[in-house]
Amino acid sequence: MGASEQGAGQRRERFERGMEVLTRVDGEGGQRVVDALADISPELAHQVVAWGFGDVYSRPELASRDRQLVTLGMLTALGGCEPQLEVHINASLNVGLSPVEITEALLHSAVYCGFPKALNATFVAKKVFGERGLLPVTAA
Amino acid sequence: MGASEQGAGQRRERFERGMEVLTRVDGEGGQRVVDALADISPELAHQVVAWGFGDVYSRPELASRDRQLVTLGMLTALGGCEPQLEVHINASLNVGLSPVEITEALLHSAVYCGFPKALNATFVAKKVFGERGLLPVTAA
Amino acid sequence: MGASEQGAGQRRERFERGMEVLTRVDGEGGQRVVDALADISPELAHQVVAWGFGDVYSRPELASRDRQLVTLGMLTALGGCEPQLEVHINASLNVGLSPVEITEALLHSAVYCGFPKALNATFVAKKVFGERGLLPVTAA
Amino acid sequence: MGASEQGAGQRRERFERGMEVLTRVDGEGGQRVVDALADISPELAHQVVAWGFGDVYSRPELASRDRQLVTLGMLTALGGCEPQLEVHINASLNVGLSPVEITEALLHSAVYCGFPKALNATFVAKKVFGERGLLPVTAA
Amino acid sequence: MGASEQGAGQRRERFERGMEVLTRVDGEGGQRVVDALADISPELAHQVVAWGFGDVYSRPELASRDRQLVTLGMLTALGGCEPQLEVHINASLNVGLSPVEITEALLHSAVYCGFPKALNATFVAKKVFGERGLLPVTAA
Amino acid sequence: MGASEQGAGQRRERFERGMEVLTRVDGEGGQRVVDALADISPELAHQVVAWGFGDVYSRPELASRDRQLVTLGMLTALGGCEPQLEVHINASLNVGLSPVEITEALLHSAVYCGFPKALNATFVAKKVFGERGLLPVTAA
To answer: Minimal CA–CA distance to D58: which of D22, D96, D13?
Structure first.
C-alpha cells in the first residue's frame, strides 16, 4: 500500500470517527452542515468533522454534557452565531442537559456577557424547545 | 421601620447572601475585587456581589461546577478578560473541576474560538495551576 | 409576615420599579420582550426588568439621555445586537435625543468600531426612523 | 474663490476619487450602499467613500487583491458583518482572487476564529458564488 | 500653485484642524500617540488626527461631551482597548463629564457588556482618577 | 503493526509535517509556544502544530504570504491577541511581506475595525520591527 493511499485511508478514518461522534451529538443537524458545504468548501466540512469531532470532541477527558456547557457559553459570548447555537442547543438536549439547565446557563451568561447576548441566545433556545415540544420551561 | 430603612436592609441582605456565595466559590479573590473597587465604584462591587452572586449564581437550577464550565467558555470567547479568567480558573478548581477537565475545556474552546483565544486562556490556567502546585497536568 | 413572603414582596417591588422605568424609556418595546420570554425564561425577563432597569437604570447618577448614548455605543460595538439596537434607538428618541444626534453618534462610532458595525447600526436607525416618520434626517 | 467654496471643492474631489475606486472594486454594490444611506446618513456614505476608499484604499502601498485578503480576515473575525462580507467577496473576485483562494482563506480563518465564524463566512461565499455561476468550487 | 501642492496643502490643513481638536479634547495624550507612531506608521497618525478628529469629531452635530459617552461605551464593549480607554477617560474629564458620571456610565455598561468588561474599564478609570487626585469618587 | 501503534505513527507524522511548516513560517517563535505548553496542555500544542500547521497551513490552495495577510486581519479584528500578532508579524516578514505592506495592512484595518484595534496592532509591529532593526519604516 503506497504512502498516499495510506494518507487517504487515515483521512477517511478520522472523518468517519468524527461523523460517528457528530451524529450521536447533533443528530441530523451535523449531516445537514456537511451537505450544505459540499459545493462550496468540502474541505471545511471535512475539518469540522475530522478535527472538531473526530480529534477533539471524541477525547474522553471531558464529558459530552460538559463540552456542551462550555460551547453554550462560547457561542453566546461570540455573538452572531445563532445557526451554531441552534445546532448546539439541540445537541445539549441530546446529551442530557435539561431545558431548565440550558435556560439557566443562558441566564448565567447575562452576568458575564450582558443582557443582549443572553437574550439572543435565549430566543434561539425558545425556537429549539418549541420545535421539540418542550415549552413552557418549568422550574425543576 | 421606615420604607428607606427597609430598602437598606434588603440591599444589605442581598449583598450578604452574595458575599457568602462569592467567598465559597472564589475564596479570597472575591474580597480582593470588592476591596479594589472601594474608592472608585463601590456600587459596581455591590452589584457584582448582590446581583451576580446573590441573585444569579446562588440559584439552584444549575450546579456551581456547571456554571464554571459555562463561564470558562464565555471568558475565553470574550477575550481580554485574563484577570477574570484567573479568578474563575481558581473558582473552577474550588468547585470540583479537575486540572484535566479545565485544560480540556480550553482545548475544546479552540474549535469554536480559534487557537489565539484558547492559547491566551491556557496560559492563564498555567499561572493558576503553577501557584497551586498542580503542574504538570497529567492525563486522568 | 414570614421571611419568604417578605422576600417575594421585595422581588415584586424591584420588578415593579423596573417596569415603570422600562415603560417610560422603551414604551411598548419593553413589555414585548417580557412577554416573549414568558414561556422560555421568565427569570431572565425578571432580571432584565428588576436589575437592569429597577436597580441600575433608575439611578440618578447619569441622565437617561446619557445612558442611551453609552448604550448606542455599546450595542454598535458588540455587533449582532440589532434587535436590542432597535429597542434602544426608539428609547433614544423617547428620552430626547434627536435623529441628527443619533445618526451622528453612529457616524462617530465608525472611528472606533470601523464602518461595517457603523453601517449595520445606521440601517437599524433607518428602519426605526422610517416607522416613526422621521426620514429623511436633515441637518439641525 | 472663497475658503468655504474651496473646502466644498476638496470634499467633492475626495468623494469622487473614492467613488472611482469603490466602483472599480465593488461594482454596483458600492453605489447601492451610498443610495441606501441617502435619507438616513448621507455623511456616513460620504465618509465611507471619501475616506475609506478615496484616502485609504487608493494608496499604492498595498495591492487591491491583498487589501481584500486582509478584509476577508477582518470581516470573518468581527462576526455579524454578513452584508459587508457579501460586498467584499464580490470585490475579492473582481480584483482577481479565485474562488479556490477565497474558500481557502475562509478555511484558514477557522484556525484563528473557530468554526462558527468560518462557517458563517463560507455560507456568504456560497451565496455570492451561486449568483455568479461559480459553484461548485473545484480544486485548482 | 500646482494640483499636487494644493493636495499637500489640503492634507496639512485637515491635519491641523484635527490636531487642534485632539489637543483640546485629549490634552498631551493625543500628541504622545502621534509621536509614538512617527517611526512605524506616520500615515496612521495622520489619519487618526485628520480624519478621526479633523473630519468627524469636529462636526457640530453632537457635543464633545456626548461623543465621549458614546466612546466610553464602545471602548468598554470592544475590550482589549485599555490604552485608548485611558486617553478617553482623561478626555471625558476634560470635556466636562464628572467622575460620578463616568463611573456610572461604566456601571451601566455591565448591563449590556457583562461584568468582566465593566470591571476592566473601571480599573482604567481608577488609574486615571488616581493620577488626577480624584479618588475616592463620592456620590454627587 | 497494531492499530494503535499505527494511530500513534499517524499522529506523530502529522505533528512532524506541521512542525516543519511552523518552523519555516514562524522561526523559533513556534517552538517557544510548544515548549511553553509542555506542562499545562501538550495536547493543545499538538493540535496547533498538527492541525493548524500540518493539516491547514500546509495546503497549497493559498500562498503562505496570503495566509499571513488574512491572519493579520483576523488577529487585529479579534483584539487581545497581541502575543499571537507578535508571532505573526514576524512570520509575515519571514514569508516575504515588506514592512511597508504590513503597516499598510494595519492602516487598512482601521477602516473595518476602527482606530483602537489598528493602533494596538501597529504598536506590536513597532516592537517587532524594532527588534529586527527595521525602523523607521519608509515609503516604498
So the answer is: D22
Distance from CA of F15 to the nearest CA of B (A): 16
Residue C78 is predicted with a pLDDT of 97
Contacts of A82 in chain D (CB under 8 A): none
Nearest to A60, CA basis, from C14, C23, B98: B98
Considering only CB atoms, which residues of chain C are within 8 Å of chain E?
A: 51-52, 56-57, 59-62, 66-67, 69-78, 84, 100-101, 103-105, 107-113, 139-140
Collect all residues from C whose CB is shorter than 8 A from any CB in B.
10, 43, 47, 51, 55-56, 59
pLDDT per position as a tens digit, E42-98: 999 999 999 999 999 999 999 999 999 999 999 999 999 999 999 999 999 999 999
Find, in chain F, the residue whose alpha carbon is nearest to that of C115. Answer: F112
Q: What is the pLDDT of residue C27?
A: 86
* Dihedral over Cα of D8, D13, D14, D20: its sign: positive
pLDDT at C3: 57
The widest CA-to-CA distance across chain F, in whole angstroms, is 60
Which residues does F contribute to its contact with D (CB < 8 Å)? 51-52, 56-57, 59-62, 66-67, 69-78, 84, 100-101, 103-105, 107-113, 139-140
Other beta carbons within 10 angstroms of residue F124's beta carbon come to 23
pLDDT tens for D31-89 read 899 999 999 999 999 999 999 999 999 999 999 999 999 999 999 999 999 999 999 99
F133 φψ region: left (φ > 0), alpha (ψ -120 to 50), beta (else)? left
Q: What is the mean pLDDT of chain F?
A: 94
Distance (Å) of CA F73 to CA A133, B76, D85, F92: 43, 20, 14, 12
pLDDT at residue B28 is higher than 60: yes
Query: pLDDT tens-digit profile of E16-30?
Result: 999 999 999 988 888
Residue type, B135: L
Residue C61 has pLDDT above 70, yes or no: yes
**Of B112, B75, B77, B107, which is closest to residue B91 (Cα–Cα)?**
B75
E69 interaction partners in chain C (CB closer than 8 Å): 66, 69-70, 73
The tens digit of pLDDT for each residue in B91-108 reads 999 999 999 999 999 999
Which chains have at least 3 CB atom pairs separated by less than 8 Å from chain F?
A, B, C, D, E
Q: What is the mean pLDDT of residues A73-77?
A: 98
Q: Which of C59, C66, C104 sits opposite E61 (nearest CB)?
A: C104
- Contacts of residue B83 in chain F, CB cutoff 8 Å? none
Question: How far is the CA of F43 from the CAs of A56, B33, B100, in angstroms?
Answer: 10, 33, 11
- Can you read off the three cell numbers belonging to residue B27? 475564596
Of F51, F56, F59, the CB nearest to A55: F51
The whole-angstrom distance between A113's CA and the closest CA on chain C is 10
> For chain F, which residues lie within 8 Å of any Cβ of chain C, measuring from their own Cβ?
110-116
Torsion sign (Cα): F77, F83, F87, F93: positive
Residues of A in contact with F51 (CB under 8 A): 47, 51, 55
- Give the whole-angstrom CA distance, residue A34 versus residue A41: 9
- Answer whether residue C41 shows pLDDT above 80: yes
Q: Is the pLDDT assigned to residue C140 strictly greater than 90?
A: no
Q: For this complex, say whether ipTM is above 0.90.
A: yes
Average pLDDT over residues B24-36: 90
D10 to chain E: nearest residue by CA?
E10
Provide the pLDDT confidence category of residue D28 given band limits of 50, 70 and 90.
confident
Which of A47, A75, A83 has its CB closest to that of D107? A47
